[in-house]
Design a protein that fits this description.
heterodimer, A: 274 residues, alpha/beta, Rossmann fold, 4-stranded antiparallel beta sheet, 8 helices, 10 strands, B: 278 residues, mainly alpha, MetI-like fold, 2 domains, 0% strand
């Protein structure tokens, strides 16, 4: 799946060659009645095929906006974004998206919510149903195929939306604070599950979060963004072996990475002590 | 690979629904009967003139005597408001969709709609009769005019109620406007649309009666006027009873349709909860 994308030498005068996602000097401004707000300011970033990149930053720093521009669902104000060497001008379809709100359709059963992806794409339902059931089983939702979303807890609902993002085997996952609304314990479990799922076939992932430890735990590389207008303040390569276990948080290396991110936040004046 | 959240177990089989389906009937019939008995006693013990207020038993007897006539007039009126209501759906839902999806339509038509709605339809009913004659057409169109507004408004509200993320998501699956409408916007709009339909259903009945009051030679509204002119208060009440039955049936059919269409919606679930006494 990735061999073609990884092909080096394709026209690329900016960023690294063969990048899966290339964000080049991208700006985004929103204009309300009286004033213009710059949400993203001159962001450049390349993501390799199969790389897991976390973007961490304070609320309103434009990190979600950045993800939405990569998905092609909202346009850039300036600069350009390429996905697989193709300029993004319309919604990217070789993608699975998970939002903070699970965005399940209440009128569809759990199974039908996963298969929504297949229905909308006009693919043949019958050939995906077994896979949908397998995915649901993998995240512990066997027996809930015919339940409706309202019968599930928040964590279970978000698992369904993850299955929906995976069923069509996309090359890229875009995740916008997917576990932000979950309780702490469920959230840790979801992190472990996501790492396991990701390690099976290493899709390219852009993961937006405001949790420092979640960003480090999951990612190959952590991008720290500044408060609005969002700029890239720091890039940290996370060189920790996988699969990572929850206990890795208590390791010295992990603490070292975390303090690098925290120091950035303190520099912005976002964390003030005593 | 193994399941990680051990607290999750498969849903239990649904509990028996017996008590839930019986309770509303028992209570509804009970309170209705109590009201009728009180009414009957009041009329008989106070010797109220049947010209002012006939006893329920007398109304029933009069209805039985005139049953073929009442049935015939009911069919006329029902035909008028049903046709008016269906036309109101046919006009109201697409118009609501246009208001949502087309900015020019929204800017041009919406103010007109609101202005039109503020006109008391009963006041213009005579004009409809002048234009369209005293036959069925004028009644149907009055019913349409009086009932389509809530359908438009609720369609607009409904089509705007989809969660933005769900629309983004479906677009990332390659959906155009039509698929977004079919998979997300329309189903999400159904609870609101049904709310509009229920309000419209009662208004359509009013519209048909108003039309018959102005000018008609058949229908329950016509019969009310005739019976009233003959001081036949029992028959007037009989007509009202027939109208109540028609209206209730009409509303009930809509409720059943709603239950099938939007079982998933919060309102439906809450009603179920109330019925079980939760």
């Amino acid at each position: 799946m990735l061999s073609e994308v990884g092909r080096p030498g394709a026209e690329s005068d900016h960023g690294s060659p063969g990048a899966f996602v290339r964000i080049d000097k991208v700006d985004k401004s929103f204009s309300s009645q009286k004033r213009q707000v710059k949400a993203v300011d001159g962001v450049s970033l390349s993501i390799r095929p199969g790389e897991f990149v976390s973007v961490v930053g304070p609320s309103g720093c434009g990190k979600s906006t950045l993800m939405m521009m990569v998905s092609g669902l909202i346009p850039v104000s300036a600069g350009r974004i390429d996905v697989r060497e193709q300029k993004v001008t319309a919604p990217v379809t070789d993608v699975g998206i998970v939002f903070q709100r699970d965005a399940l359709l209440e009128w569809r059963t759990v199974l039908d919510n996963v298969l929504l992806q297949i229905d909308v794409r006009g693919l043949e339902r019958a050939s995906y149903e077994a896979k949908a059931r397998a995915l649901l089983k993998q995240v512990g939702l066997s027996g809930f195929e015919q339940s409706h979303p309202w019968e599930l807890s928040g964590g279970m609902r978000q698992r369904v939306s993850m299955c929906r993002a995976l069923i069509h085997n996309p090359s890229m996952l875009l995740m916008d604070e997917p576990f932000g609304a979950l309780d702490a314990l469920t959230r840790e479990q979801m992190n472990v599950d996501l790492q396991r799922i990701w390690m099976e076939d290493r899709k390219t992932v852009l993961f937006i979060t405001h949790s420092i430890w979640e960003a480090i735990f999951l990612a190959d590389r952590v991008i720290v963004m500044s408060p609005r207008p969002g700029r890239i303040a720091k890039e940290i390569i996370i060189d920790l072996p996988r699969p990572r276990r929850l206990a890795i948080r208590e390791s010295t290396e992990f603490g070292h990475y975390a303090s690098q991110v925290r120091e950035q936040f303190q520099k912005f004046g976002l964390l003030v002590e005593g | 690979m193994e399941m990680s959240d051990t607290s999750i177990s498969a849903p239990a089989a649904p509990a028996k629904k017996e008590s839930r389906s019986r309770a509303p009937i028992v209570y509804g019939v009970g309170s209705g009967l109590a009201l009728l008995v009180a009414w009957e006693l009041f009329v008989r013990l106070d010797h109220v003139s049947p010209l002012l207020l006939p006893a329920p038993s007398e109304v029933v007897m009069t209805m039985a005597k005139n049953f073929p006539l009442l049935l015939q007039m009911s069919a006329v009126t029902a035909g008028e408001f049903l046709l008016g209501f269906l036309l109101a759906i046919a006009v109201g839902v697409p118009l609501g969709a246009l208001v949502v999806f087309s900015r020019p339509v929204r800017l041009a038509v919406y103010p007109l709609l609101v202005a039109f709605q503020t006109i008391p339809k009963a006041a213009v009913a005579p004009i409809f009769i002048v234009w369209l004659g005293a036959g069925m057409t004028s009644k149907v169109l009055i019913a349409l005019a009086i009932s389509f507004f809530p359908i438009v408004i609720d369609t607009v509200i409904g089509l705007r109620s989809a969660q933005p993320e769900t629309i983004y998501l479906v677009r990332s699956m390659g959906a155009g406007a039509l698929k977004v409408f079919w998979y997300v916007r329309f189903p999400a709009a159904l609870p609101a649309i049904f709310g509009g339909l229920k309000v419209a259903s009662t208004l359509a009945v009013v519209g048909a009666i108003v039309g018959e009051f102005v000018s008609a030679d058949r229908g329950l509204g016509y019969l009310v006027l005739v019976a009233n002119g003959e001081l036949n208060t029992r028959l007037v009440f009989g007509c009202v009873v027939m109208l109540t039955i028609l209206g209730t049936l009409f509303y009930g059919i809509l409720e059943i349709a709603e239950k099938f269409a939007v079982r998933w919606h919060v309102s439906a679930r809450q009603l179920e909860g109330l019925d079980t006494g939760h």
